[in-house]
Amino acid sequence: METVLLKQLRTYDPDALEPVIDRIFRTFGVYDDLRPGMTAVLKPNLILRSDPAAAAVTHPLFVQAVGRCVQKTGARVLIAESPGGPYAPGVMRGHFKGCGYTQMAEANGFLLYTDCQSREVALPQGRRCRQAPIVEPFLGADYLIDLPKVKTHSMVGYSGAVKNLFGCVPGLQKPELHCRFPERGDFSEMLVDLAEFLAPQFTVMDGIWAMEGDGPTGGDRRELGLVAAGRNPFAADVAVAALLGMVPENVDMLRIGAQRGLGPRTLGEVELLGDDFAALAAPDFRKAKVSSTDFVDRLPRALRPMAKKWVTPRPKIDRKRCVGCGKCAESCPQHTITLVDRKAQIDSSRCIRCFCCQEMCPQHCIQVKRLSLLKL
Ligand code: SF4
Ligand code: SF4
């Protein structure tokens, strides 16, 4: 049975946070894994350049606490990530700075990966995806620590430990994978392929400030007060998804992971340590407007494509707030967004509802629109 530790913590104050991470490392024996001369690669979620107070990115003080515990063993700390958009050294330096990581890393002697090298590799166990480009430090890392942000997600419903590993694919090659796997089920299976390949040794989830509503970037901060950790990223996600009032089996990537024997199916199959689950539970956590197309599968086959198109939420641009930066168009795998009079415009006939555009919009002016009938 996989073990997940849940801890209530409402602050990023290092004096409170570092003892929590220290206890987590002791509980799971992480200190015994690390040695002088090793490099631990820390993988936060830095989906876009954003003030950590907005709760879209893993908080730099959270990463600092983990990095400082790693350093106690004599191992080096390397922070690596690839957000959406172009993946280039100058962009990445600006990104780290904009998310509050540059100063934090310098103050602690952590390295920030800005070489932006990647390689196409085979995923031998892959069921849906047998080959993918991966950012260099994640290939053969001495020790990989997954540091996701707890968030909702407009395409796959929930973003945690497994989804965070999609950030190991370099920038604009992410939309290519969206294009190869436009359906949510196939996309989720690809995420499971990636997670199985990358196999982080440890996961610590930042849910102190989580994001609810239209995540992963356009939702609202929720002061959830949660730190969750474990060896198995699927188990950590099952525990946290359940805590947020979701049914883990309804989250495609978690169900697929369980079917493949990579993680537990239900909360009952997870050994919980730490604080009381019921006291931490947030069943009112606002969910993302993810499509629910189950009933479509009960329609005659010939009607399904049309019905699916009808019920699946679509991105809608608030033109008044759009500043014409073009970041949405840059990230669109279907090249279906154009700028007209310095305002973004979507050709919805070619849209595959991947919501990359929503993730990348710095103004948060792309909303998830679903038919009002389906809100009932
Ligand atoms: S318009 Fe947005 S949701 Fe549609 S394909 Fe492009 S990026 Fe994806
Ligand atoms: S990313 Fe947002 S602000 Fe920029 S062009 Fe697209 S919709 Fe407009």
Describe the protein:
The protein is α/β, with parallel strands linked by helices and 376 residues long. It contains 14 helices and 17 strands. The strands form four sheets. Strands 1, 2, 3, 4, 7, 8, 9, 10, 11, 12 and 13 form an eleven-stranded mixed sheet that branches. A hairpin with a 3-residue loop joins strand 8 and strand 9. Helix 3 runs parallel beside helix 5 (101-108). The longest helix has 15 residues, at 14-28. The chain is globular and about 55 Å long. 49% of the residues are buried. Bound molecules: iron/sulfur cluster (SF4) (2 copies).
What is the highest CATH level, the class of the largest domain? Alpha Beta
| The CATH topology of the largest domain | Rossmann fold
**What is the gyration radius calculated from CA atoms?**
20 Å
* CATH architect. name of the largest domain: 3-Layer(aba) Sandwich
Number of DSSP E strands: 17
Q: Alpha-carbon distance between the termini?
A: 39 Å
Low-confidence stretches: 372-376
Bound ligand species: iron/sulfur cluster
- Give the biggest beta sheet: 11 strands, mixed
Percent helix range: 25-40%
| Count of domains | 2
Average pLDDT over all residues = 92
Which superfamily, in CATH terms, is the homologous superfamily of the largest domain?
LarA, N-terminal domain
Structural class: alpha/beta
Strand fraction band?
15-25%
The gross shape turns out to be: globular
What is the number of helices? 14
